[in-house]
Amino acid sequence: MNPEAHRAKAESIEQSLARCTTADYETVIEACMLAGTHWFNVALHAADLLPLDHDAMHAEFLTIGQRRRIACVMPSALAALDTIESLRTPYVRGDLPGGTQAAQRALDCLAELERAAMHARARGG
Amino acid sequence: MSQASGYPAARGDTFVHDKHPMKIASHLEKFRRLDETLRRLEPGRDQELWIWTAMNAGVHLLNAALHACGATTESDAFHSQVEGLYAVPDRTAGTLHDAMLAPGDVMHVGQPPLAAPLPVAIERASKALRTIEDLRERFVRGSERADASLQHDWRVAYASCVRELHATLDACHGQR
What ipTM was estimated for this complex? Predict the structure, then answer.
């Protein structure tokens, strides 16, 4: 998928996310994962870290080599997506207390991923 | 075999002891919360998040029904993104560790596969839920948009899944 399509998907999901609050923490975390992954792909394609015909689905499932290259070029974006993904098991599938705070953390990470995408596009086109 | 996990709660966050581990009641509460959120979303306008929330709500209700009918075991462990790998909380210490366990919760329909024969109503619910799960590639990760007819079909599939699972839970509770 090309960067413009990823951006359109991310923005569409963020519009839906706006109908939720951090009290809806399961859905907020999932929306941040979905939109954040699209922003992540915008950044990866813009930086030529992944070809247009190969999208990242989950940071957790990138190869070791891919993760090392991404960590070298955009460590904060990789860390942000790792953090969002790490919130899913305890707060979406599981019932640990603190979901509202976890949702806020996911939103902060989503903002970081959008910043990384814009920065990569500004540098790489 | 287990090891310390990389989940946030295991990296210094703490959580207080919880009297409601991830059992039937917890899955039902998760379903209730997700279903309430889903009512604020529209499958057309909010296509991606509607699909994802319907799927998550359905999986929690499926896990409740599977536990209730004895096909899977209630346990205080949360399924991870890796099939068969669970995060196990220590609710006193406020930590999580990874463990390979028998189900337990399923992540999606058939993941992990279950050996036990399932009630017919759960089979019907699983078929409906799989319809929603299968939308992810085209309509969430991909760029396809659904027309009104497809959106109607999705609502029907979700309603069918919920109806069948509630019937299973009612039947199983009656046997208990």
Answer: 0.94
Whether residue B83 lies within 8 A of chain A, CB to CB, comes out as no
pLDDT digits (tens, 9 = 90+) for B147-174: 999 999 999 999 999 999 999 999 987 6
Cα gap A67→B50, rounded to integer Å? 31
Counted domains in chain A: 1
How close, in Å, is residue A27 to chain B by CA atoms?
Answer: 6
Q: Kindly compute the dihedral angle of the four CA atoms of residues B26, B29, B31, B32, in this order, to the nearest 10 degrees.
A: 180
Confirm or reject contact between B48 and chain A (CB < 8 A): yes
pTM of the model: 0.91
- Which residue in A13, A57, A98 is closest to B49 by CB distance? A13
Give the range of the structural domain holding residue A107, as residue numbers without chain letter: 3-124
Domain enclosing residue B145, as ranges: 2-175
How far apart CA B90 and CA B144 sit, in angstroms, is: 43
